Amino acid sequence: MTPVYLAAYQSGNIQKVNASLQNRLRACDICPRKCGVNRLQNEAGYCKTGLKAKVYSYLPHQGEEPAISGTRGSGTVFFANCNLSCVYCQNYEFSQLGRGKEVLPEELAGYMLELQEAGCHNINLVTPTHVLPQIIQALLLAIPKGLRLPLVYNTAAYELVEVVRLLDGIIDIYLPDMRYADDALALKYSAAAGYVGCNQGAVLEMYRQAGLAAFDSDGVIERGLIIRHLVLPNGISGTPEVMQFIAERLSPEIHISLMSQYLPYHLAKNFPAVSRRLKAKEYDQAKQSMDKFGLHNGWVQESYGSERFAGVNIKPNLLDG
After folding, report:
1. Nearest-angstrom CA–CA distance, 27 and 37
2. Quick check: 81 and 129 in contact, CB under 8 A?
3. Segment holding 49, helix H or strand E
4. CB-based contact 90:75 (threshold 8 Å)
5. Residue 135 contacts by C-beta under 8 Å, 6 or more apart in sequence?
6. Closest Cα partner for 17 from 148, 205, 164, 214?
7. Which of 28, 44, 65, 247 sits in a 20 to 30 Å window from 219, CA-based?
8. Which pLDDT band holds residue 107 (cuts at 50, 70, 90)?
9. How far apart are CA 257 and CA 259, in angstroms?
10. Pick from 88, 86, 85, 84: nearest CA to 269
């Protein structure tokens, strides 16, 4: 399947999106925080990122869902910094502490092409929200040099709908988190005011653009939406409400990655409700919520994230990955 961004490049749409995003950097309102700093002058707002994107690492990654990693790996670019401040973040060394290297768009384009040359199935942009303008700049450079892999927008999904709307016809695969169903909890544990409305609105727009997941003959995703849901201790992730939203506002056929890998990283020890790992009973209850709302496509982590995802058809049975 041809990546959707090729048509957008030929029509000039990516160039228009690039101009729009660059303009938004003058008083940055790329994400719901709307810091208003002039990132074109290298001012940094909440995400601690100015003019240049910062990259922590890039590699063929085998640890994603089977449909994303496939057999040759997902061409993953881990961006440093984030527009969330999750107290339990497992990637806190680069998402919160900012480890990484500032890169020019030419360098980022080179990373994409290098990952394509390595045989990866896709380009997987991890935590892209705050560096979306820089990504689009790099894409404009990589396409005429031969980039032909589908793009995965791998996001915590604390997004502005109007910004996600700009990506229509550019992003092939959306991989958003749906982390909370309660704004107060999102504020407490991720410093994300108004998270639920932003998150749900963004995911609805992603689904409108990309639709249900479509796979090639080897089971690798080529286009569509996969939703990740990290199950947190003590019901903090609001799993029943999230599953109800997916089933009723999106589709019961949505592919869901139900994640059990939670561990109390970073500052979690200071927050009693998330200071322990997930219990088996809590994860079983999350699977029951999927079943209750007729959600049967996706993957589970029966080994609490220590092994690759297992395929799941919750109704009627579990399948091997």
Report:
1. 5
2. no
3. none
4. no
5. 53, 108, 125, 128
6. 164
7. 247
8. very high
9. 6
10. 88
Token pair for 249? 């506002």
Residue 253: name the closest of 290, 209, 206, 216 by CA: 290
- CA–CA gap between residue 118 and residue 126 (Å, rounded): 18
Token digits of residue 139: 């894409």
Q: pTM, whole model, 2 decimals?
A: 0.94
Q: How far is Cα 276 from Cα 41, in angstroms, rounded to an integer?
A: 42
Measured between alpha carbons, how far is residue 18 from residues 14, 24, 120, 170, 318 in Å? 6, 10, 26, 11, 44
Which string of b and e fits 30-53 if b means at least 16 CB within 10 Å?
Answer: bbbbebebebbeeebbbbebbbbb
Q: How far is CA 84 from the centre of its chain?
A: 12
Tokens of 153: 């927008």
**End-to-end CA distance of the chain, in Å?**
23
116, 149 in Cβ contact below 8 A?
A: yes
The model's pLDDT over 182-237, given as tens digits with 9 standing for 90+, comes to 999 999 999 999 999 999 999 999 999 999 999 999 999 999 999 999 999 999 99
Q: How far apart are the C-alpha atoms of 148 and 170, rounded to whole Å? A: 12
- Residues 75, 68 contacting (CB under 8 angstroms): no
Please check whether residue 208 is in contact with residue 164, taking contact to mean a CB–CB distance below 8 angstroms.
no
Cβ partners under 8 Å of residue 284, min gap 6: none
Look up residue 121 and give its two tokens: 């199935």
Residue 72 structure tokens: 């040759």
Bridge-partner residues for 154, per DSSP? 126, 175
